[in-house]
Design a protein that fits this description.
Oligomer: single chain
Largest sheet: none
CATH class of the largest domain: Mainly Alpha
Number of domains: 2
Helix content: 55-70%
Shape: globular
Radius of gyration: 17 Å
CATH architecture of the largest domain: Orthogonal Bundle
Distance between the termini: 56 Å
Length: 113
């Protein structure tokens, strides 16, 4: 199987995992829908800048490139941290902002020991 096509299939899986349509994700990434479709279904290779931006949006680019997902241990995250990050990445913008306010408030609160 063509490596670009396999990477494209994994890119599509990651996009869907985060709940984005092709149209929505292409807007988020600053590319045309046609380009997004090409990355996912044709021989067009997504470049490093695109993949870097995709990683910042929550996609696991190690999985996209290699076919192997990065585990919480490889990310140096505990399972709890990895689960929290997974939940966070599935929130919309407003929910993320609300969660950040709560987290910042909790971080400032004196700890109970």
């Amino acid at each position: 199987m063509n490596i670009n096509l396999t990477m494209g299939m994994r890119l599509q899986e990651e996009r869907k995992r985060l709940g984005y349509s092709q149209e929505g994700f292409s807007l988020l990434m600053g590319v045309s829908r046609r380009t997004q479709v090409s990355y996912e279904t044709r021989d067009k290779n997504a470049g490093l800048l695109y993949l870097s931006k995709a990683q910042a949006k929550g996609l696991d680019i190690y999985y996209i490139i290699s076919g192997n997902a990065i585990t919480a241990e490889q990310q140096l995250l505990s399972e709890t941290e990895a689960n929290l990050l997974k939940i966070y990445r599935n929130l919309d913008r407003q929910e993320k902002e609300s969660l950040m306010i709560i987290a910042q408030s909790l971080a400032k609160a004196p700890s109970k020991k």
